[in-house]
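lol forgot to send this yesterday, sorry. struct tokens for the thing we talked abt
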């Protein structure tokens, strides 16, 4: 509980408060942040508009017609006073993302391997051998920021982002990893592509992944990737 002894509640506009629980990114933060999500849902009820968890914070958006900012802040103070970590996170089901690792869909795979002093096969084994935690959703609908990758695989974002990154592309930026849910601009280092549908308007909640989920990238052959519906469209060169 010492990690959240002095949380800060910061203004985020007329209808929002940002609760800052931590000052540094750590996997141990998530049980507290998810507990805050759970307790805010119960405490705010119909007056709650949205909750946006992140690495160290939770954005709480409320209905200004139902609560004044002062009332919402008081509600948050009450929630924080009795906050306890969510122990269910330890037993969360692992989401598996079938991923084809290949330079044709992961143009930075070979460069990353060279930088790390590893073979491409070693990079694939290292990346797919870990279980990652989803810290936050952002940038694009269904885009899940996950961590932390092995230090050997850490790589800075591209100096010039690509104008178009195909949907499903799996990338690394710093010690974070993610998969693009739809075609979009992007500057992450691409090492493969997943066949999983990460964002679907017909799915409840739309996004396959949610903050707090645990994720494993499962290496599959090109044939299996195609069978699962994956696209082998080549990544366009950065211009």
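and heres what i got for the seq, position by position
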């Amino acid at each position: 509980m010492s990690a959240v002894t002095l949380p800060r509640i910061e203004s985020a506009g007329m209808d929002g408060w940002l609760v800052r629980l931590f000052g540094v990114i750590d996997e141990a933060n998530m049980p507290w942040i998810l507990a805050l999500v759970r307790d805010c849902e119960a405490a705010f009820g119909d007056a709650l508009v949205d909750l946006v968890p992140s690495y160290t914070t939770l954005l709480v958006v409320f209905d200004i017609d139902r609560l004044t900012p002062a009332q919402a802040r008081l509600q948050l103070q009450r929630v924080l006073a009795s906050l306890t970590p969510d122990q269910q996170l330890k037993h969360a089901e692992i989401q598996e993302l079938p991923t084809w690792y290949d330079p044709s869909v992961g143009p930075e795979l070979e460069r990353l391997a060279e930088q790390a002093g590893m073979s491409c096969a070693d990079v694939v084994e290292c990346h797919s051998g870990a279980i990652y935690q989803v810290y936050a959703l952002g940038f694009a609908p269904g885009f899940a920021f996950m961590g932390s990758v092995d230090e050997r695989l850490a790589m800075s974002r591209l100096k010039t982002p690509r104008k178009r990154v195909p949907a499903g592309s799996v990338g690394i930026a710093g010690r974070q990893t993610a998969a693009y849910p739809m075609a979009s601009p992007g500057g992450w280092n691409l090492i493969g592509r997943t066949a999983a549908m990460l964002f679907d308007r017909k799915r409840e909640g739309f996004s396959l992944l949610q903050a707090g989920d645990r994720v494993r990238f499962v290496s599959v052959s090109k044939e299996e990737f195609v069978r699962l519906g994956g696209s082998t469209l080549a990544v366009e060169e950065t211009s």
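The domain at 2-90 is CATH 3.30.1360.40 (Gyrase A; domain 2). anyway ping me if u want another try
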